[in-house]
UniProtKB/TrEMBL annotation:
Keywords: Glycoprotein, Hydrolase, Signal, Zinc. InterPro entries: Calcineurin-like_PHP, Metallo-depent_PP-like, MPP_PAP, PAPs-like, PAPs_C, PAPs_N, Purple_acid_Pase-like_N. This is Purple acid phosphatase. It comes from the Eukaryota. Residues 1-29 form the signal peptide. The keyword Glycoprotein applies. It comes from Lupinus luteus (European yellow lupine). Residues 54-141 form the Purple acid phosphatase N-terminal domain. It is an enzyme of class 3 (hydrolase). Belongs to the metallophosphoesterase superfamily. Purple acid phosphatase family. SUPFAM superfamilies: Metallo-dependent phosphatases (SSF56300), Purple acid phosphatase, N-terminal domain (SSF49363).
Length: 444
């Protein structure tokens, strides 16, 4: 009997070994509990509406109680009119905005409309129509009090993985969408900007999208387009003037106890630059009793243990890190590296309980694939890292505590692979009352 059992065990072991020799990815699956996803195809969308109907509709926050509605029409005579109200099909209010268009070589954009509506009530669903025709859209305004939840996705693109990410993000409720650069991956192919706008419309028309630029938005060309960002600045107008900025490439806004700073990795940032002076002034103006949480987003990460894009954010870190540290900025989110990585709180390359917590989340669904190779041995500053497509969620519960979670994309669902509780630096006396801010690592 014993000999028979041993024979059975031997047969099972031999069968497993044979399977792993034929299909080595099965062994990888056992080791990592997940097989890395390959790149998926580019998704392009076509306009199915009339020339006067709105397309590529998206909304963004403006001030504490207003929303900017942005859309494009092929018809050059359509008004920049938004009708809106709290009942479907009944529009008790209306507002008229501005419009523009741009040329890029032989390409001419449609009429790009921007209209600010409000004042609006918090936690209220509004129905709206753009240009006097076409489909009705709706959105719900953010709440006036905690809790608030942000969905955060970098390097989005327009692939089948992008579609998967957006569906996963949309599967549960959130209030505001934050994107730290690399939107459409058009890379000067202007029709891809239109395709991207149509792809994200079902999501960006019902939740405020607040974005900053990445390297794929630059689109410079010697002599003809030396300054870049022509499509980005025309299509994705953010509330930079409201925050005292002179550039759409960097700005700030406030929502429910949070001061959000969107920085520009691809415009001047040294201590003599306009961005540096603006950031200094912006941080000085923050009232932490009103907005206890301060969060920054940028594209090229200041801390990165992936082999991809090593050192590309270093000069910006050296220029601006001390400003964020002195102001007790809580979190810094970056993209650019096509993987997920969460660090501890850091200042000047050392663990520091009063520094920001750094997160790289450049894994939204880009067409270039994942950055698979991390440096070894791992840095003690890096607490979790994984090259998978996914998205993140930051739920701020109150003045003192928030929860961060990262969702890995699987084929049909998303899986919470990483999460951590975070205490605001404003609630830490060691950070707000000690000018020297002791350099010591604390468990988050």
């Amino acid at each position: 009997m014993m000999e028979k059992c041993n024979n059975n065990k031997s047969f099972i072991m031999f069968s497993l070994l044979f399977c792993f020799l034929l299909f080595p990815h099965l062994l990888l699956s056992l080791e990592n509990d997940y097989v890395r996803a390959p790149v998926r195809q580019l998704v392009t969308t076509q306009n199915q509406r009339s020339d006067s109907d709105p397309q590529q509709v998206h909304i963004s926050l403006v001030g504490k109680d207003k929303i900017r509605v942005s859309w494009i029409t092929e018809d050059k005579h359509t008004q920049s009119l938004v009708e809106y109200g709290t009942n479907s099909g009944k529009y008790s209010s209306k507002a008229t905005g501005t419009h523009t268009s741009y040329q890029y070589f032989l390409y001419t954009s449609g009429r790009i409309h921007n209209t600010v509506i409000g004042p609006l009530e918090p936690s209220t669903t509004y129905f709206y129509r753009c240009g006097g025709s076409g489909p009705e859209f709706s959105f719900k305004t953010p709440p006036s009090k905690f809790p608030i939840e942000f969905a955060i996705v970098g390097d989005l693109g327009q692939t089948e993985w992008t579609q998967s990410t957006l569906k996963h993000v949309d599967s549960t409720n959130y209030d505001v969408f934050l994107l730290p650069g690399d939107l459409s991956y058009a890379d000067s192919q202007q029709p891809l900007w239109d395709s991207f706008g149509r792809l994200v419309e079902p999501y960006a028309s019902k939740k405020p999208w607040m974005v900053t630029q990445g390297n794929h938005e630059i689109e410079t060309f010697p002599i003809i387009y030396p300054h870049g960002f022509k499509a980005y600045n025309n299509r994705w107008l953010m509330p930079f003037e409201e925050s005292g900025s002179t550039s759409n490439l960097y700005y700030s806004f406030e929502v429910v106890g949070s001061h959000i700073i969107m920085l520009g990795s691809y415009t001047d940032f040294d201590d003599k630059s306009e961005q540096y002076k603006w950031l200094q002034s912006d941080l000085d103006s923050v009232d932490r009793s009103r907005t206890p949480w301060v969060i920054a987003l940028l594209h090229a990460p200041w801390y990165n243990t992936n082999e991809a894009h090593q050192g590309e954010g270093e000069s910006m870190r050296q220029a601006m890190e001390k400003l964020l540290y002195d102001a007790n900025v809580d979190l810094v989110f970056a993209g650019h590296v096509h993987a997920y990585e969460r660090f501890t709180r850091i200042y000047d390359n050392e663990a520091n309980s009063c520094g920001p917590l750094y997160v790289t989340i450049g894994d939204g669904g880009n067409r270039e694939g994942l950055a698979l190779n991390f440096k070894n041995p791992p840095s003690p500053l890096s607490l979790y890292r994984e090259p998978s497509f996914g998205h993140g969620r930051l739920q701020i519960l109150n003045e003192t505590h928030a929860h961060w979670s990262w969702y890995r994309n699987n084929d049909t669902n998303s899986f919470v692979a990483d999460g951590v509780w975070i205490q605001s630096l404003f609630s830490s006396k060691a950070c707000t009352q000690n000018p020297e801010k002791q350099t010591s690592h604390e468990e988050l």
